[in-house]
Amino acid sequence: MHFLKDRGFFLPSSEITPRAGYEGRRDLLKLLAGGAAGATLATWAGRAAFAQATRPGKLAALPGARSAVAGAVTMEKTTSYADVTSYNNFYEFGTDKSDPGRNAHTLKTRPWTVAIEGEVKKPRVLDIDELLKLSPMEERVYRLRCVEGWSMVIPWVGYSLAELIKRVEPTGNAKYVEFVTLADAKTMPHVGSRVLDWPYVEGLRMDEAMHPLALLAFGLYGEVLPNANGAPVRAVVPWKYGFKSGKSIVKIRFVEKEPRTSWVKAGPQEYGFYSNVNPNVDHPRWSQATERRIGEDGLFQKKRATLMFNGYEAQVGQLYAGMDLKKFF
Ligand code: MTE
Hints:
Elements: H1 23-33, H2 37-49, E1 65-66, H3 81-86, H4 99-103, E2 113-118, E3 124-127, H5 128-132, E4 138-145, E5 150-160, H6 161-168, E6 176-181, E7 201-205, H7 206-210, E8 215-220, E9 223-224, E10 234-236, E11 249-255, H8 262-266, E12 290-293, E13 304-305, H9 313-316
Parallel strand pairs: 1-4, 2-11, 5-12
Antiparallel strand pairs: 2-3, 4-5, 5-8, 6-7, 6-11, 8-9, 8-10, 12-13
Helix pairs in contact: 1-2
Bound molecules: ligand MTE.
Ligand MTE binds at residues 88-92, 144, 146, 181, 200, 229-230, 242-243, 245-248.
């Protein structure tokens, strides 16, 4: 990760070195070296086309049924497991993209509890294993667009955040949901650094949190989340810039006032509370009109056009009807 002085401001993707993404070709070479060229070639082609159906076999299995929620499964090619799990933002473990993959093995994901607090009729502290069983697991294949100008397509496993919210019965005063994530200096080497105000806090308006596409994720690629991706539980809000999707959540608070989120505190001119993906509202220091898909790193590879609400406009556009999206960026 690159910095402007030592503040935690993102730099545009053009200043980030692209990584080679030839996972599929490596797989093919391995298979060919193994001997069975003909039949395996067909298998490999199948795997490349339906990568999300294959689990890498590195962590515990966590399968989910294909989601029936409108817009929840893009047919775009998924980003390789290797890239999804080694090119991360998880500042508690360092600010370089490779830091979480290298450092997050120290994160202890058991025992783990998530406290549900604030404006709810049924506040409670849920053990992660209870939370896992709260609702049937689904596979959602979402585009993730980072504010820095890169994107991925990730097959997540989880269920709608709304499933949890319904069960705790928010009161009429609950206007926002705040996600508080773990800040444990003993296991997270960069907690305490001046980059952000810890713990990492994010939030959503209540109707955003209740939207069926807002996901509480426990896994990806058919397995439990790797630590670098926010184990054991994180939010995934596909129509917003990636930083809205807090990792390693320990508290979900229902509140009346708009939460003061970590990035808004760090740079209110640069990161708004809404942070909806919007190609028409530039970041003050770079354009948001295009993006680089991780894994598509060819020298002459054209950038992709960024889509309004990251391509989920049909599903979520109504939430913002009548709002000035330049003001509420
Ligand atoms: N959550 C925590 N706790 N700490 C972080 O630094 N980074 C955010 C978000 N959630 C972050 C976080 C950012 S900037 C992005 S783009 C996504 O996580 C990245 O998720 P991924 O690494 O699984 O792709």
